[in-house]
Structures are given as structure tokens and as C-alpha cells.
Design brief:
Elements lengths: L3 H19 L2 H4 L4 E7 L8 H15 L4 E7 L7 H15 L7 E5 L1 H14 L5 E7 L13 E5 L3 H11 L5 E6 L3 H14 L7 E4 L5 H8 L6 E7 L11 H11 L4 E3 L11 E2 L6 H16 L8 E4 L6 E3 H6 L12 E3 L5 H4 L1 H74 L7 H28 L2 H5 L2 H16 L2 E7 L7 H22 L3 E9 L2 E8 L14 H12 L3 E6 L5 E8 H5 L1
Parallel strand pairs: 1-2, 1-3, 3-4, 4-5, 5-11, 6-7, 6-8, 8-9, 9-10, 12-13, 14-15
Antiparallel strand pairs: 10-12, 15-16, 16-18, 17-18
Helix pairs in contact: 3-10, 4-5, 8-9, 13-14, 13-18, 16-17, 17-18
Length: about 600
């Protein structure tokens, strides 16, 4: 049995877990902070779209809690204020019924006027952040404790000054401006500020034209003209336009360079944001910082107003080149965008990779060439060594043949003669027969040694020439092997280079020796002829033949023949079939051997 005290301890321990399980899932997750963006002209309307994009990004990165962003638009360029105010108030009250947003951010002048006028009807306790307008539109008395404003001050005369500096020969500046109440306000403000340029340049306003008429005007501008694109919410015909679409329509036909007041227009065909300007990205970041302070509950006693600092002029390098504008004329500190980077900076990694591959390939090619050179040298050395070996072999055979012929053979003949002169008076008949046998043996041995010396080095080759030497060798083979050898020599010169004659003789000698040893032939044909500047030798038999592919070990005789041919640059072919005889064909060039 579990005691009552122990049961109470278990119950106390389980209470927190039971409480968590009984809590609704929605209560466990943190409620996101809600931000209402009230747009004057729409979420994607330029130049405010850059401010909004930066604001959204900075809110997501800067908040430690989830943030839900809601968008509402006045569409101020398409309806009058009286037409949109009450329905928009009712829409927002319905959308946030019972749970007002944590902060309201207005974008553009119309929203900055609308929301303070209707604030008490909607969300009086919600902090307000005003953005996307000139400081002249900030209604300071309408701001309350905890509110903030991020505004800018645009220097319109500075814009004209910079246009005239960049294009000093400019005689006419055409200003693109719409005809809404906001634009009419700006027309009054800016026309007064531009009045001081009346004696220097002619300024033409297009605020009373439709977009179609504006296109015709900018398409027919005289030389030394420029276009200043200010703002075009709706043209004089009352047709509203997205800023990007209207600008693109004018850029398409303009015969003069177009300048703008806003940095965000830079990549849409304008030469530059001429004159000191403020960055929409900077304004968006400051607006996000003010909204984050409000979300964190920071509630200063007085509203804060931040003026975006001026930044230097920015220009599009592509448009500067298109209109032939000298970069030296740009104001000091100007920023040039879209300028091609130097080849090294643009393709540094590619260039380094290509150079590395090229150097590697070069190293490999050098290595291969060096290996080929070494191999060729080794082959040349081997060829030279082979030639020297064969020459030394022939010299040794010549010396040995001479020694056998001039010394051993003569001594054997002398011994046989002396043996024949020995007296035989007291000798028995068996002794006499033995002496006679010794004499004959010595004579036969002398003859064999003479034949051996001839095979080692046939003197007839040098004395009578190649043809006679081969005929003598064929006669010897015919006698010793009982085979018929036919010799045919056609149109041979009386004398041949020593190397050629010796090479052909040794190949024929080796072929005849192989026939005697292995072929079991009855007929052998040997022919000599001149062909293609060389000596052509052919030795064929009707013997048993062989299968070249079935040879288990290389033939030393064949290797000797091929090496001799290779040294003189000739060709050797051995054709044979089992039971079909063998043919050896060798061609030795005369010219190379002679040279």
C-alpha cells in the first residue's frame, strides 16, 4: 500500500504537467507582433517599393519575436481622399477587430496625412511610424509620445546644377510631372525653386500633358536637351501609372538623356540620380529600426524625427557611355554603377584556373617531350650499340676465320703430311693402318676447319662479290643437305657497299641454315634483284613451314636478321604456313648504306 503522504507528493509533482497538457496549443506558442503597413499608392509602387522591401527584411532580421506584417493601400493615385477614407477606416477596424496592430507604419505623403486624421477612430493607442515623405509633409503636431518619423529633404536646385555640370551645353530641361493634387503641390514648390535658372536654361513642364503626349514631346527634343523624371502618379488625362511602366515608356522614345530624383530608377534607363539624394534603402533601414523600438515597448515622451542624410550622386555607366558623357564631368564623390570590372577582377578564379591548367599541361608536355627525347636517345644508343656489336662480331669472326685458315688449317695439313712421311719398316700392318687413318683424319679435320673459317668469314664475298659468294654458299648447302638450290641474280651492279653485301649475305646464310636444319625441303630458290634503290633478296623453300603465331620462344636467327635490316634501314618479311614452305624477303637500301 502506498502511503497517503507519498500520494500527495506524486500529486504535487504531476500538477505542472497536467497544467501544461490542459493549456491550448495556441497559448503555448508566442503570439506574433503585428505590423500594419499603410501604403499611399500600393506595395510595389516605386520609389517606395525599395523602402518597403528593406523595411520587411530588417524587421525579420531584427526582431527576437515572430512578426506578422499586414498590408493596406489607399490607392491615392486612383481615388480622391474623400472617396477612400471612410471605407478604408471601416476595413481596417474590421480586419483588426478586438486586437489592434502593435505598430502602424505609413508609406508616402497621402498615408501620412490620412492616418493621423483618422487615428482616434481606429487605433489611438498604437505607436505610429511615418516614412517615405519629404520633411515638409511631416505633421509634427499630430505625432504623439512613442511615435517616429523618417523623412528626407530633397534639394531640387542641386539636381539642375548637376545636370548642367554633367551636360554643360544643355539649353533645355524637360520636367516630367503628373497632375494629381500631390504633384500639383510639388509643381508649385519646385517651379519656385527652379526659377533662379531661368536666365541659364529653358525649363519646360509636362504636367498638363497625357503620357502619350509626353512620349511625343521627349521623342522630338532638340539637341542639347535633357529630361528630368520627377513623379508621375497620374497624367493630365487622369490615367494612373505605375512609376516603372511610365518611365520605361519614356525611356523607349527619348532623344535626350533622362535623369531622375530617385536612386531606385537607376537600372531602368536613366543616366543617373543627379544631385544630392537620399537612399531609399537607408530610409527603409531607419524605418525598420523605429518600428522595432516601438515593438519592444520603448515609449519616449517626445516623438522622434529622423532626416535621412544626403548621399552623393549615382550614375549608370551604361547610359553614360550611350550618351557619350565624359566621366570627368561627374561631381566629386559620384558613384558609378554597372561599370564592367577589369578582366582580372571579373574572371579572377577562371583566369587562375585556366593558367593552372595551362601550366600543368605545359609541364606534362615538357615531361612527355623530355621522355621522348630520352627514349629516342636511348634508341639511338641501342642502335649504335647494336651496330657496334654486330661490327665487333663480324671483326671477331673475320679474325677467327683468318686464324683458323692461316694457322690451324696449315698446321693440320703439315701434321698430315709429316704423318704420311713416317717410315713403316718395323711397323705392323695394324700400326700402318692406324697411321693412315690418322693422316686421313687430319686431312678431313683440316677441310672441316677450312669450311668453318669460310662460314665465319667468306673471303670470296670481298674477292668476287655478293653473287659469287651466295652461289658458293648455295653449293655448299646443296652438297651437305642434299637439296637442290636454284640461284637467280638479275641486274645487280658489279660492286655493292660492303655493309649491304655483308647484310644480304648473312640474311641469306641464316635463311639457308634454317632450311637445312628445320625445313626438310627438296627445292630452294634464291633470287637477287635491284628494286626501289635497294637490293631485294628472296629465299623460299617447299619444306614443312611453320605457324609464326605458335612460336613459344623467339628465334635468335630471326632476331639477328631483323637487327641487321634495322641497322641499314631496310625491310624484312618472313612468310610461312604449316606444310606450305617458308619465304624470307629482305630489302636493303643501297643509298643509305653508301652514305
Amino acid at each position: 500500500m502506498i502511503s497517503a503522504a507519498r500520494s500527495r507528493r506524486w500529486a504535487v509533482a504531476l500538477l505542472p504537467a497536467i497544467a501544461v497538457l490542459c493549456t491550448p496549443l495556441g497559448a503555448i506558442a508566442a503570439e506574433p507582433k503585428r505590423v500594419l503597413l499603410l501604403h499611399s499608392f500600393g506595395r510595389e509602387f516605386a520609389p517606395y517599393d525599395v523602402i518597403v522591401a528593406t523595411l520587411r527584411s530588417e524587421l525579420a532580421k531584427g526582431s527576437s519575436e515572430p512578426v506578422a506584417i499586414y498590408d493596406a493601400s489607399m490607392d491615392a493615385g486612383q481615388a480622391s481622399g474623400s472617396d477612400v477614407q471612410q471605407p478604408l477606416v471601416e476595413l481596417l477596424l474590421h480586419r483588426f477587430a478586438g486586437s489592434p496592430p502593435d505598430v502602424v507604419v505609413t508609406i508616402g505623403p497621402p498615408a501620412a496625412v490620412f492616418y493621423p486624421q483618422n487615428r482616434d477612430k481606429m487605433f489611438p493607442a498604437t505607436p505610429l511610424v511615418i516614412a517615405g515623405l519629404d520633411e515638409r509633409f511631416v505633421l509634427k503636431p499630430a505625432l504623439r509620445a512613442g511615435d517616429a518619423a523618417v523623412a528626407s529633404h530633397q534639394s531640387r536646385p542641386g539636381v539642375i546644377d548637376n545636370i548642367l555640370r554633367v551636360l554643360p551645353n544643355t539649353q533645355k530641361i524637360v520636367v516630367v510631372l503628373g497632375d494629381t493634387p500631390l504633384e500639383r503641390f510639388w509643381f508649385g514648390e519646385v517651379s519656385r525653386e527652379f526659377a533662379r535658372f531661368a536666365n541659364r536654361v529653358s525649363i519646360e513642364w509636362l504636367n498638363k500633358l497625357s503620357l502619350k503626349q509626353m512620349r511625343l514631346r521627349v521623342a522630338s527634343l532638340p539637341p542639347h536637351s535633357a529630361v528630368l523624371y520627377s513623379i508621375l502618379l497620374a497624367d493630365a488625362a487622369g490615367v494612373p501609372y505605375e512609376r516603372g511602366a511610365a518611365l520605361a515608356s519614356l525611356v523607349e522614345v527619348s532623344t535626350a538623356p533622362i535623369f531622375s530624383l530617385y536612386e531606385s530608377d537607376l537600372q531602368h534607363g536613366i543616366v543617373g540620380s543627379s544631385g544630392p539624394h537620399h537612399s531609399q534603402q537607408r530610409e527603409g533601414a531607419l524605418t525598420a529600426a523605429a518600428a522595432l523600438r516601438a515593438l519592444r515597448g520603448e515609449n519616449p515622451t517626445d516623438p522622434t524625427i529622423q532626416i535621412v542624410d544626403y548621399e552623393a550622386s549615382v550614375y549608370d555607366w551604361r547610359e553614360l557611355k550611350r550618351w557619350g558623357i565624359d566621366l570627368a564631368r561627374l561631381p566629386a564623390g559620384s558613384e558609378i554603377r554597372f561599370q564592367p570590372r577589369p578582366l582580372w577582377e571579373e574572371h579572377r578564379i577562371l583566369i587562375i584556373t585556366a593558367l593552372a591548367i595551362f601550366l600543368l599541361q605545359t609541364a606534362l608536355l615538357i615531361g612527355l617531350v623530355w621522355q621522348r627525347i630520352r627514349r629516342r636517345r636511348a634508341e639511338e644508343e641501342a642502335l649504335s650499340l647494336s651496330g657496334r656489336l654486330i661490327t665487333a662480331h663480324e671483326d671477331e669472326r673475320r679474325w677467327l676465320a683468318r686464324e683458323l685458315h692461316d694457322d690451324i688449317t696449315q698446321r693440320l695439313v703439315g701434321a698430315a703430311i709429316e704423318a704420311a712421311k713416317l717410315p713403316g719398316g718395323d711397323l705392323s700392318s695394324s700400326d700402318i693402318d692406324a697411321r693412315h687413318t690418322i693422316g686421313e683424319t687430319l686431312m678431313q679435320l683440316s677441310g672441316d676447319i677450312h669450311d668453318l673459317s669460310y662460314r665465319l668469314h667468306p673471303s670470296v664475298l670481298h674477292d668476287l662479290g655478293l653473287v659469287e659468294a651466295l652461289k658458293a654458299e648455295c653449293e655448299r648447302i646443296a652438297r651437305s643437305e642434299s637439296v637442290r638450290v636454284d640461284v637467280e641474280a638479275v641486274k645487280l651492279p658489279p660492286s655493292l657497299p660492303r655493309e649491304v653485301a655483308l647484310c644480304v649475305y648473312r640474311i641469306a646464310q641464316e635463311a639457308l641454315r634454317n632450311i637445312g636444319r628445320h625445313a626438310k625441303a627438296s627445292i630452294v630458290q634464291l633470287s637477287l634483284a635491284l628494286k626501289d634503290g635497294g637490293v631485294l633478296l628472296a629465299v623460299s623453300d617447299n619444306g614443312s613451314g611453320f605457324e609464326p603465331g605458335l612460336q613459344t620462344r623467339p628465334s635468335l636467327g630471326h632476331a639477328s636478321m631483323r637487327e641487321r635490316i634495322r641497322l641499314l634501314g631496310g625491310k624484312l618479311e618472313i612468310r610461312s604456313t604449316l606444310g606450305g614452305g617458308t619465304t624470307v624477303v629482305a630489302w636493303v637500301p643501297i643509298s643509305e648504306a653508301a652514305s
